Amino acid sequence: MAPSTMTRTHALRLAGTALTCAVAAGSLVGCSSSNTTSDASSSPSVSASKSPSSDPDQAAKDKVLAAYTNTREIQIKMADDGDLHTEDLAKYAKGDAASDLKKSVLRNRGANIKFTGRPGMSPSVTSVDTKSKTATLSDCFDATNWKPVYKDSGNAVQLAEQPLKYPVTSQAELEGDTWLITKITADRTKSC
């Protein structure tokens, strides 16, 4: 569908979905993509910092935070180039986050939309339970400088009136010795 014939509502829904799914970035476990363009040098890898701490769960928190940050870096790449980067995502995320992201990338690709710039983030691990192998993160996701545009024209996609800086809550699970992001939920009804 050409950008000129796309209704504003449809464009807004796509852009909103893209932002939601950007927040819900994850792996596509069990799926593959023939246009995956990953290699060792292109995979983002944000390491958890190793600093002494009196918190016995600090190492787990660092790994959870690294999984979230790496998921976001892959999501930014996906929103820019429209590829699924399945293998890279599988290292950091799965579940609802993965399926939501896949839908968003495919919708945006079909509508000829990509994202330019970068979002701002300030994630922190709010809880970690190594016995139940679960963790929760919170973030103030800032899409102010991360804009959807039409690939062909470079024209901005008009977004619905909503906060561009909003709270996000994410869930993670421990599988073996790897923390994976499983769900990311944005609350666009309020700012942070």
Instruction: Indicate the low-confidence ranges by residue numbers.
Output: 1-43
Question: Largest sheet, described in full?
Answer: 4 strands, antiparallel
* Broad structural category: alpha+beta
Strand content: 15-25%
Gap from first CA to last CA: 35 Å
Overall morphology: globular
State Rg. 17 Å
Helix content: 25-40%
Query: What would the average pLDDT be, to the nearest integer?
Result: 79
Strand order of the largest sheet: 2-3-5-6
Describe what this molecule looks like in 3D:
This protein is α+β, with helices and mostly antiparallel strands. Helices cover 31% and strands 23% of the residues. The strands form two sheets. It has a four-stranded antiparallel β-sheet with strand order 2-3-5-6. Strands 1-4 form a two-stranded antiparallel sheet. α1 packs antiparallel against α4. The protein is globular. The termini are far apart.
Topology:
Elements: H1 8-23, H2 58-81, H3 86-89, H4 96-110, E1 113-117, E2 124-129, E3 134-142, E4 146-150, E5 165-175, E6 178-186
Features:
4-stranded antiparallel β-sheet, two-stranded antiparallel sheet
Summed up, what is this model?
Helices cover 31% and strands 23% of the residues. The chain is of the alpha+beta class and 192 residues long. Helix 1 (8-23) packs antiparallel against helix 4.
